[in-house]
Write a structure and sequence with these properties.
- By secondary structure, the protein is of the alpha/beta class.
- It has two domains: 301 residues, 7-stranded beta/alpha barrel; 113 residues, immunoglobulin/albumin-binding domain-like, CATH 1.20.1430.10.
- It is 50% helix and 8% strand.
- It contains 19 helices and nine strands.
- The longest helix has 30 residues.
- The radius of gyration is 24 Å and the shape is globular.
- The two termini are 45 Å apart.
């Protein structure tokens, strides 16, 4: 690392979706989450990486691809359904070009979406061979992208601490899935919801993990107090490094009120053709039950706190994204200069975000990110973008301390995932974990049908533990779906367990559940023993 720079910037994106796959239905509303993220976040990120590599821009970014997301990206059924989804978007955008042919502003936007959907289909089907994971792995092999893993199904680990075996299973299954799909062992681990408890790092170390990310207070309230705050990593006693989130840089992006995404020039997320246009016209492109849903074509900009929204201008938004990228870089330069003077060493500014913010919620997010990396490369010498692992390799001496129990989200101590709306789930999850551990110990050499049943029990438990269900219950959106998913997985787990205990496994039932909840094909139930 050159001697001119004053500090380092580590952009970390957390790409995650819960495992939503329903082969028993032709179309399923919640599968739309995956299709939207593919079109609006994951493919745009890959486009951005390709453009930066093509132009010789030396950038570094860290991205967690969760095991559930990797599994969906590589699932043939979802790949096929996403291709159909793209064809539907292309068809609708063609109709929109015809509908708006006498309205130049809206016609240009309809054509912009049409071209974008065509390009997404071309990239997905021809360039990526229906599998985006290979594209992400290739960028990683070029040394620009560090891909982290996460809990197998994004289980919130501070609320699983009562069963060390359950926590270990979330970590071990994640590492194996990452290696199987991406062909490389992960060095970094995104703690689901940034949820940490003292001792969790010891389990991470068992699986070869070198570092993880925590929220700011996880470092600041650790013991002993951190000498450099969150501007240098710390080592846990296990030797695994913890990196803390920088509040200032994070807030300038994720805050809709104070951050860049709320600028009136940017695209308005909450005005979509699926809701704005005539019901019968959009009906073939919304949910099968007739419920209006976002289609993905949005014609308006934020404009301001007014119901009247002006038409969107891509050119103006792109210009604004470049200005905001320059502002973010300037602020990080000044921050690095100030901190270096205080610390007597070069600070590391860690800026983590949900990946879906970029493109899905904030349409211009990928544009902003690309402009930021270009400006860092060409326009300054004060800061340098690095990955956490790259920083550790160049700065191996760091303070030893124990981070405090913490999470991100409201109030920072698990309140989002443990409250009156969702607290009922944990007694079931804890009991199922206890039973899974008992079953693994009492059937150490299961073979054939019994082994398949025990493996499916492990899948059902992992899927039930997803933090997404508790989160959805708290936010009150898709609540019925989240409750049903939790209950379904626990009921399937219990039914299979009882059949194993009675030595009367229902082959037909097991096969039906294996075909629906088919995640982790190589899982070994003995991960719980």
């Amino acid at each position: 690392m050159n001697t001119d720079e004053k500090g380092y910037l580590s952009i970390v994106l957390h790409a995650h979706l819960p495992y939503v796959r329903h082969p028993q239905y032709d179309r399923f509303l919640e599968e739309q989450w995956f299709y939207e993220a593919m079109t609006e976040t994951y493919i745009p990120l890959l486009r951005m990486f390709t453009a930066l590599l093509r132009d010789g821009v030396d950038f570094r970014i860290t991205l967690s691809l969760t095991p559930t997301l990797l599994s969906m990206m590589t699932d043939p059924l979802l790949q096929h359904r996403y291709f159909i989804h793209l064809n539907r978007l292309i068809e609708f955008s063609e109709k929109e070009m015809e509908r708006t042919r006498h309205e130049p502003v809206f016609y240009d936007l309809a054509k912009m979406y049409h071209d974008d959907f065509l390009d997404a289909r071309r990239l997905f089907s021809e360039h990526y061979g229906l599998d985006l994971t290979k594209a992400f792995a290739e960028v990683s092999r070029q040394g620009k992208l560090e891909i982290m893993t996460c809990g197998a199904t994004h289980g919130f680990m501070p609320l699983m601490e009562v069963s060390r075996e359950a926590v270990r299973a979330q970590v071990r299954v994640a590492v194996r899935t990452h290696e199987r799909i991406l062909g490389m062992r992960p060095r970094g681990f995104w703690l689901p919801e940034c949820g940490y408890f003292p001792g969790l790092d010891e389990i991470l170390k068992e699986e070869g993990i070198r570092f993880f990310i925590v929220d700011t207070h996880g470092i600041l309230f650790g013991s002993p107090r951190p000498k450099y705050g969150v501007f240098a990593p710390v080592y846990c006693k296990s030797g695994v490094a913890a990196f803390g989130r920088d509040i200032e840089s994070s807030k300038s992006v994720w805050s809709a009120e104070e951050g860049y995404p709320g600028d009136p020039v940017y695209r308005e997320f909450y005005r979509d053709a699926g809701f704005d246009l005539d019901y019968n016209y959009v009906k073939p492109y919304i949910n099968d039950d007739g419920t209006r849903t976002n289609i993905g074509i949005k014609y308006h900009r934020i404009t301001g706190a007014t119901p009247h929204k002006e038409p969107y201008s891509l050119h103006a938004a792109r210009e604004k994204a470049a200005q905001h990228a320059a502002n973010f870089m300037f602020n990080r330069e000044k921050q690095a200069e100030h901190l270096e003077g205080l610390m007597g060493k070069k600070p590391l500014i860690v800026s983590p975000y949900d990946a879906e913010l970029y493109g899905h919620w904030w349409y211009e997010g990928p544009m902003w990110l690309e402009q930021l990396f270009r400006k860092i490369h060409f326009d300054q010498k004060t800061i340098r973008s690095v990955t956490p692992m790259e920083y550790l390799e160049s700065n191996p001496r760091n303070q030893v301390m124990t981070p405090s129990m913490s999470s991100w989200g409201y109030n920072g101590y698990a309140e989002v995932w443990l409250n009156a709306s969702n607290d009922w789930v944990y007694r079931h999850l804890h009991k199922a974990s206890e039973r899974m551990v008992e079953a693994a110990h009492s059937h150490p050499h299961a073979q054939g049908l019994e082994r398949r049943a025990l493996n499916q029990m492990a899948r059902e438990l992992l899927l039930a533990q997803s933090s997404d269900w508790a989160f959805i219950m708290k936010t009150g959106t898709h609540t019925e779906y989240a409750v049903n998913r939790t209950k379904d997985h626990i009921e399937r787990f219990t039914r299979i367990l009882e059949s194993v205990q009675k030595n009367s496994i229902d082959t037909g039932y097991l096969e039906s559940i294996e075909s629906i909840d088919n995640i982790f094909p190589d899982i070994d139930y003995k991960v719980y023993s």
